[in-house]
């Protein structure tokens, strides 16, 4: 093995053990880089890539770079005019939530709108979870009664009276209708033993929804950094591989978000003034 590799590894280890925060991400970056090098060597990299519109906001890993070159994971604005699924590169201008010299302030409409939608989605899912939880107990109450068909609605109402919640509580009619539909779809009128299948179905549904809420909250916390201030780092325009594009998780809408026309015009003018004129 070339001794220069061992020397580089030794230096990386020394840097990782310093107080420089940038170098704390070295293990992740080196692992990622070696992974893609290996994929490239074995010809296992896809030939087609996601196509992005100009102005799209994407989340990228800029890597660990030298000096004032942009490093780490950040959002960026796509500058490509005519992107293609066969284009493996994307040119971006990075975004920051912190103001620095030469940074261009932007209106944060995109992140504000996305946060509003994400928070509303969380509210809707949590409301559904309220309904499902109450339906589970309601169906248990229903099954415990011998006369299922005739006592369904009154049992449900009695249950709701006992377990009333002051805030964001589903209406009686919502739970009643959902309970009826579930009881009928699982044929509980004729065979209450099917409740075990119903319970497993609802349990999976609840866990899936809870997982989605956790993912949404992770995205929301990341986006909150841009809720008040958003700046473009026009001096750090860079062309990088689309393989560096990331998602915070499955609920991250980056890539589908797009900068408005006026903000994009500001970015274009700033790039012209800083890099061309």
TrEMBL record:
Record-stated family: Belongs to the PemK/MazF family.
GO molecular function, a single term: DNA binding
Entry keyword annotation includes Nucleotide-binding: no
Keywords for this protein: Toxin-antitoxin system
A Pfam entry, by short name: PemK_toxin
Record's keyword annotation contains Ubl conjugation: no
InterPro entries, A to Z: PemK-like, Plasmid_toxin/cell-grow_inhib
Protein name: Endoribonuclease MazF
């Amino acid at each position: 093995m070339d001794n220069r590799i061992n020397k580089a590894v030794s230096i990386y280890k020394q840097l990782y053990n310093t107080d420089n925060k940038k170098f704390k991400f070295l293990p992740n970056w080196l692992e990622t880089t070696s992974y893609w090098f290996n994929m490239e060597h074995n010809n296992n990299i896809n030939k087609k890539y996601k196509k992005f519109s100009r102005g799209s906001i994407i989340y990228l890993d800029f890597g660990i770079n030298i000096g004032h070159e942009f490093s780490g994971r950040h959002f960026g604005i796509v500058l490509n005019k005519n992107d293609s699924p066969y284009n493996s590169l994307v040119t971006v201008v990075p975004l920051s939530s912190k103001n620095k010299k030469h940074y261009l302030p932007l209106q944060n409409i995109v992140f504000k709108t996305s946060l509003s939608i994400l928070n509303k989605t969380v509210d809707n899912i949590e409301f559904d979870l309220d309904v499902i939880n109450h339906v589970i107990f309601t169906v248990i109450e229903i099954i415990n009664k011998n006369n299922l068909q005739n006592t369904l609605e009154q049992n449900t109402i009695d249950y709701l009276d006992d377990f009333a919640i002051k805030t964001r509580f589903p209406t009686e009619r919502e739970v009643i209708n959902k309970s009826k539909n579930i009881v009928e779809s699982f044929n509980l009128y004729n065979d209450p033993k099917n409740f075990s299948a119903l319970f497993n179905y609802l349990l999976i549904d609840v866990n899936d929804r809870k997982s989605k809420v956790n993912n949404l909250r992770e995205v929301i916390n990341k986006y909150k950094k841009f809720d008040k201030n958003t700046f473009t780092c026009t001096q750090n325009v860079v062309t990088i591989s689309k393989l560096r594009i990331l998602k915070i998780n499955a609920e991250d809408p980056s890539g589908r978000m797009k900068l408005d026309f006026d903000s994009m015009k500001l970015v274009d003018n700033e790039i012209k003034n800083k890099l061309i004129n």
